[in-house]
Amino acid sequence: MKVGVVILNWNGLELLKSYLPSVVKFTYNHVIYLADNASTDESILWTRQHYPDVKIIAMQENRGYAGGYNQALKSVEEEVVCLLNNDVTVTEHWCDIIARLFETEPDLAACQPLLLDDKNPDKFEYAGAAGGYLDKYAYPYCRGRIFDTLEVDQGQYKTTIDLHWASGAALFLRRNAFDRVGGLDPDYFAHQEEIDLCWRLRLAGHKIGCASDSKVYHLGGGTLNNINPQKTFYNFRNSLFNIVKNDHQPRWWWRLFIRMLLDGIAGIKFLLEARPRHFFAVLKAHFSFYKRLGDFKHKRKKSTALLTHKTLPQPKIFLVYQYFVKGRRHYTSLKKHS
């Protein structure tokens, strides 16, 4: 099975110089695309000069992660695609391993490799580690990463296809499933759009996986780093979008209310930590959420009519309590007490 590896780029020339060589070297027998989000640097020119076999998809405006990939995939023919960040180093056979998994698992719609930290290669990387889950209030966490606590990779997490979400840093997708659920939602612009997509894929009866024999190293923060208040804004706002759009359990509105209260507590914590810009980012996130609430209620109705499974098992874990009160900082300790 041939995979279309699509690298979304916006003014990332220096990242391409550092990370594209490994992708070209280890992605043989597959097709590599550079999807350029209207860069003003020389990303396209440099790629054409140094890697003429990389196919260029030049877009006329910056559509963000979701809109950029939705547009770029219209020019990609392969049935399985990989949405790959421009700050990822890949390893030998990384793509072949996951391609074979798609061949043997017909229900698999999304999959990621193990995501390790390019700056600290022994540790998992924040954006996806060994694959993601959601707690009962839609807080995302990973095998290998709970909030800001990163575990050392000791081979403790094996291949699985029972995840809630796979990381957008290196996200393999089956195109017909992707198209069936409507693709990525451009209203997110950045952050958590892969969680929304994977949630809809699961509602439609598909599976999400992680292939532990495939490893990549992610720099992270290439677009917005962890200390940027804009990242706080997107993460808080888009988590609320996810609940309204995708939580079809009874009393979903109560979980939304509790999550918003927890956001308020997080905002106060930012103030106590002398991080006022992040406090205001949380406020801004909530105001933006209120402004778009009607739109997302409409998205909820529209998507529900298209999906085959309207409910999924309700997660039992309350991540904030387990992490901050009980001090359980690793995925395995959460599972023991779920």
Account of the protein in words:
- The relative contact order is 0.13.
- The chain has helices spanning 13-26, 43-50, 64-72, 94-104, 175-180, 193-203, 229-246, 252-272, 276-306, 319-325, 331-336; strands at residues 3-9, 31-36, 55-58, 80-84, 88-90, 108-117, 132-134, 140-142, 145-146, 149-150, 170-174, 207-218.
- Helix 2 links the parallel strand 2 (31-36) and strand 3 (55-58).
- The protein is an alpha/beta fold.
- The mean pLDDT is 93.
- The chain contains 11 helices and 12 strands.
- The chain folds into 2 domains: 3-218, Spore Coat Polysaccharide Biosynthesis Protein SpsA, Chain A, CATH 3.90.550.10; 229-307.
- The strands form 3 sheets. It has an 8-stranded mixed beta sheet, sandwiched between helices. It has a two-stranded antiparallel sheet with strand order 7-8. Strands 9-10 form a two-stranded antiparallel sheet.
- It is globular and about 55 Å long.
Helix-strand layout with pairing:
Elements: E1 3-9, H1 13-26, E2 31-36, H2 43-50, E3 55-58, H3 64-72, E4 80-84, E5 88-90, H4 94-104, E6 108-117, E7 132-134, E8 140-142, E9 145-146, E10 149-150, E11 170-174, H5 175-180, H6 193-203, E12 207-218, H7 229-246, H8 252-272, H9 276-306, H10 319-325, H11 331-336
Parallel strand pairs: 1-2, 1-4, 2-3, 6-12
Antiparallel strand pairs: 4-11, 5-12, 6-11, 7-8, 9-10
Helix pairs in contact: 6-7, 7-8, 7-9, 8-9
Distance between the termini: 38 Å
Helix content: 40-55%
Tell me the radius of gyration.
Answer: 19 Å
> What class would the helix/strand composition place it in?
alpha/beta
Strand order of the largest sheet: 3-2-1-4-11-6-12-5
Largest sheet: 8 strands, mixed
Question: What oligomeric state do these chains adopt?
Answer: single chain
